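quick q for whoever's on today - can somebody do inverse folding on this one?? i tried earlier but teh output was garbage lol. tokens:
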């Protein structure tokens, strides 16, 4: 099972590296196979073709979250954990994913009739957010007038809004830096009164 996961990860990582370096349209399946050090059989076992790799960005994001979760500390409250996760994910986007690719991904998610990978509630992203929101409410760090599910939905919506706006204007600024200014203001409304102090 570990080998399977590693093979898929190598393909996804290689694909997004090439998409960033030379553009989606200029990248071929053969180049992805070569860059990942896998085989054509392995590639087509996981993906029907290059277009299918667009939805794998959620997989790449979750890999990042699985790495970041080990850097969270008990001293951080829920708000600080959310800011930390956002800062690091958006830094990854700034440094390795073009707005053109994200725009293409968002457009496929808007028009598809099949699974919307970004909204898949079984993703590690949503499970991690659920855990943080639940613990935040239990520790009176987050408001109680929204359910845990509503808090997760609100946070995910804030992140998508920031990414969508960044894509709309072609990535003219650092997504990470802009989010550092805006996201804290967005999250003030979900902090509990006793922790909502600047």
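ok took a stab at it. sequence:
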């Amino acid at each position: 099972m570990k080998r399977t996961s590693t093979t898929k990860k190598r393909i996804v990582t290689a694909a997004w590296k090439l998409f960033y370096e030379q553009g989606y349209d200029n990248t071929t399946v053969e180049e992805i196979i070569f860059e990942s050090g896998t085989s054509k059989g392995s590639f087509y076992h996981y993906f029907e073709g290059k277009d299918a790799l667009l939805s794998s960005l959620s997989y790449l994001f979750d890999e990042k979250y699985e790495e970041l979760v080990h850097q969270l500390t008990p001293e951080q409250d829920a708000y600080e954990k959310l800011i930390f996760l956002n800062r690091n994910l958006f830094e990854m986007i700034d440094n390795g994913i073009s707005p053109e690719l994200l725009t293409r991904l968002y457009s496929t998610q808007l028009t598809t009739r099949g699974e919307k990978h970004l909204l898949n509630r079984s993703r590690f992203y949503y499970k991690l957010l659920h855990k943080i929101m639940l613990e935040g409410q239990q520790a009176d760090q987050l408001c109680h007038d929204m359910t845990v599910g509503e808090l997760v939905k609100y946070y995910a919506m804030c992140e998508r809004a920031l990414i969508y706006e960044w894509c709309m204007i072609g990535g003219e600024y650092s997504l990470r830096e802009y989010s550092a200014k805006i996201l804290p203001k967005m999250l003030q409304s979900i902090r509990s009164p006793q922790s909502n102090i600047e």
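fwiw Residues 28 and 127 are 34 Å apart (CA to CA). also The chain is about 65% helix and 0% strand. so keep that in mind when u check it
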